[in-house]
Amino acid sequence: MMMQLYVTDVSPNSRRVLAAIGHLELEGETRIRKFDLMKGEHRTEEFRALNPNQKVPVLVDGDLKLWESNPIMIYLCERQGAGEFCPTDRIGRIEVLRWMSWEVLHYNKALGEIVWESVAKAGFGLGAPDQEKIDAALENYHRFAAVLESHLESRDFVLGDRLTVADFAVGSHSALAMHPGSQVPLDDYPNIKAWYQRLEDVPSWSATAPRALAEAAE
Ligand SMILES: N[C@@H](CCC(=O)N[C@@H](CS)C(=O)NCC(=O)O)C(=O)O
After folding, report:
1. Which of 25, 34, 134, 135 falls between 20 and 30 A from 78, CA-CA?
2. Residue 23, C-beta contacts closer than 8 angstroms, at least 6 positions apart
3. Whose CA is nearest to atom 1 of ligand 1?
4. What integer pLDDT is reported at residue 177 of this predicted model?
5. Nearest-CA residue for atom 6 of ligand 1
6. Residue 90: is its pLDDT beyond 60?
């Protein structure tokens, strides 16, 4: 039976799962269902039965209804046997969990607020950026970006010299962060900028670049 994956455009949480599907060569086993959130296509009782939060992404695989992008990626890796892309040894596994927890709560939380205000809101026609919110988020961004910047000083990828699922999680906002309108101060963080670029060069990642964003930047 085909898996069903519910996603939306310009969504870093959807992108990381779509990229994992591509990376694990699961496209042939997955039916992608794209919602237009602005039209409220996710606000149905049918979708609430899959995810009571009424958020995407959601993966349905047989009886399993899985929401939250990071666990979905891990599940897909386990299902497919992902090898080095998703380490299963004790230290590798806990490193993946560490960086996933950190990106949700700290790095991408701050980054997400900046790019929402400076890039995404306008793209959705939701008005001008709120500079006070951006400035408040920037304080947190600098705090956590400094951690990632120093971590990447001696590494090409989050877990070392190879791409792993942790890069898809921590790097999920790469396109929004590098968008010309973004107020993310990437010039202060050359290692992060180079790593984002390295990630954009990974075929399964670049294949999921949000097209709507590229068009808006032209
Ligand atoms: N922590 C969740 C976040 C999911 C999320 O916030 N999804 C957004 C799109 S990026 C959404 O569905 N928003 C619609 C809504 O909240 O109504 C994950 O990683 O999957």
Report:
1. 34
2. 85, 168, 202, 204, 205
3. 68
4. 97
5. 55
6. yes
Which of 118-127, 135-144, 200-209 shows the lowest mean pLDDT across its residues? 118-127
Give pLDDT, residue 212. 66
Residue nearest atom 13 in ligand 1 by C-alpha distance: 55
Spacing, Cα 37 to ligand 1 middle (Å): 10
Q: How far is the CA of 20 from the centre of ligand 1 (A)?
A: 17
Q: ∠113-194-163 over CA atoms, to 5°?
A: 90
Element (H, E) at 8: strand 3-8
Q: What is the tens place of the pLDDT at every residue in 3-60? A: 999 999 999 999 999 999 999 999 999 999 999 999 999 999 999 999 999 999 999 9
**What are residue 162's phi and psi, to 5 degrees?**
-125, 150
**Cα separation, 160 vs 29, whole angstroms:** 30
Mind listing the domains of the chain with CATH numbers?
A: 3-83 (3.40.30.10), 85-217 (1.20.1050.10)
- Enter the tokens of residue 93: 């596994």
Return the structure tokens found at 174: 């790469």
Give me ligand 1 centre to Cα 14, in Å.
8
